Amino acid sequence: MSSWLPTNPSSRRWLGLAPTYLVIGIFMLIPMIIMGTYSFMEANPYGGVKPVFSTAAYLQLAWEYDLDGTLVFNPGYLKIIWRSIGLSTMATVICLIFGFPVAYYITLQPENRRNFYIYLITIPFWTNLLIRTFAWIIILGRNGVIELPLLSLGIIDKSLRMMYSDGAIAIGLTYSYLPLMVLPIYASLEKLDFRLLEAASDLYSSRLEIMTKIVIPLSKPGIIAGCILVFIPCLGAFIAPNLLGGGKKLMLGSLVQFQFASARNWPFGSALSMLMLAVVVMALIFYARGAKKRAAGAES
Amino acid sequence: MSDQLTRPSSKRKILPVGHYRGLGLWNAAFLIFLYMPIAVLIFYSFNDNRMVMIWSGFSIDWYIKAFNNVAIQDAVLNSLIVAFFATVISTAIATIGALVLARGGNFRGKTMSLGLITLPLMVPEIVTAVAMLIFFAAIGINWGLGNVIIAHVTFCIPFAFMPIRARLEGMDTSMEQASRDLYASEWETFRYITVPLLMPGIIAGAMLAFVISMDDFIITLMVSGAGSTTLPVYIYSMIRRGLTPEINAVSTLLLLFSITIVTAYWIVSNKTRTETVH
Question: Which residues form the domain of A48?
């Protein structure tokens, strides 16, 4: 090894990192750049693009051409974007309400039990999302696990029509990404100094005050990270809106997939993807700023 | 108000500071919510009826049917081929990358390199899927399963990278220094000290990469052409055709497979954690 490897530490480093740069660079970074340029081209009705500069894809987000060629406002796609943001926010909030007490409960446990709980929570994360969402069809669907007993007991006399609704999508999204909320909150709570809580209690803080003035502020980095980790995949979700929304209640992710699979409007699909990337970048900048501020605060 | 509940006069057990009533119950409800769909899915895989939701009796016929389904066999084979190559290649790339990033000290471009490795984790899957589809179409790569393998290698790298890097950062360098002091060559030190010590991390990384590859759906759906269907993509097409317990049977098997690997990963990483403590 030593005979053929460069001895200069810098060349060694870059040699070691070269495969990573090659693979992720060529197969992920360059494709995203191509996608960005495609979003500024004209659509080819047979798939792909015509190499002509055009902002039509971005205009299509909110306007369409009338029969006489004038641009008119068309809120159709904006509604889908709006619904995506609304449903993703809803799922994120539900995940937070569900997940925070669980993350906190785990930190109160002895260490080996903590690890076991973390294992239980990560298991669904590593199993197939498609299958886990499919299970919800059996639960929510017509004559499903929820309806069947209600029907046979005569509590309801016709289907509740829980499937193919925004509610069903929200449940699916919440269920899909719950572990991504619990884990970062747990990671920041794990470092919590319980002596602070005792001190607060000695100084006559109520349990509510201990929670709102000590535990929640100190777990803020974890809460923010968890919210970003849940919100971003929700926004790009394809499986939940497709299976539980029946493909009629589109979200950003399923709209993108539709542009490439059926509508054959690659520039528009690319423009929507760029929009999603912009949201991700904004979320990351927001997070990095918060982290920098906290680091500065910790130093002073 | 909540304070009053815990006063001794209320004759209830006094909760220690920081504990709240109902947390245990909340946690239990959470775990039920997390596992109930999985339990339902497995339960209905033993349904005798053609329709998933109409229970008519216990049977394992759907498992037999799934095993004898040639399309499923092909999809499983494709999935295994893809996952095998994706795991081996991505773990190798991640190992070298982790060695540089964990041991190479601070250098210019370190943050950028870390960002690049974690890029597939940050970009929404559908965007990755679409970008790769465009890329393959633009340069005209049409290698069937090859396209799928390339895509999987790319997004498996960060998953393989994380446990390897964690292991490296927890590893003491004194053994390697001792080896070098005792005139072992650099290669010998790497081969006989670093690699064995790093092995649990490499195995953990490989397991995660394998599970992630086996489970991927949306990226595979977009980049795979005809004839390179993997198991999750095939399951999706089954769901679209109509719900039979055969889907549940295949899904149950895939689920148990993932759970087994993740459990093995958990045991391996727990063991190494206690090793480093003692």
Answer: 9-71
Number of domains into which chain B is organized? 1
Cα–Cα distance list, A185 to A99, A118, A181, B220 (Å): 8, 12, 7, 31
The model's confidence at residue B9, banded by pLDDT at 50, 70 and 90, is: very low
DSSP A193: -
DSSP B112-155: HHHHHHHHHHHS-HHHHHHHHHHHHHHHT---THHHHHHHHHHH
Put simply, whether A216 touches B (Cβ < 8 Å) is no
**Token pair 């130093």 in the structure block, residue:** A299
Q: Which helix (H) or strand (E) holds B79?
A: helix B70-103
Q: Is the dihedral of CA B40, B43, B49, B54 positive or negative?
A: negative
Residue A33: which of A42, A25, A44, A23 has the closest Cα?
A: A25
Structure tokens at B20: 């709240």
Q: What's the rounded Cα separation, in Å, for the pair A64 and B34?
A: 43
The letter for the amino acid at A21 is Y
Closest chain B residue by Cα to residue A269: B130
Asked if the Cβ–Cβ distance from A27 to B151 is below 8 Å, we say: yes
Whether B152 is in a domain gets the answer: yes
Q: Are residues A15 and A148 in the same domain?
A: no
User: Has residue B113 been placed in a domain?
Assistant: yes
Cβ <8 Å between B41 and A270: no
- Note the pLDDT tens digit of each residue in B87-132: 999 999 999 999 999 888 888 888 899 999 989 988 999 999 999 9
Residue A33 contacts residue B119 (beta carbons within 8 Å)? no
Which is it for the CA torsion A224, A226, A231, A233, positive or negative? positive
CA A219, CA B116: separation in Å to the nearest integer?
28
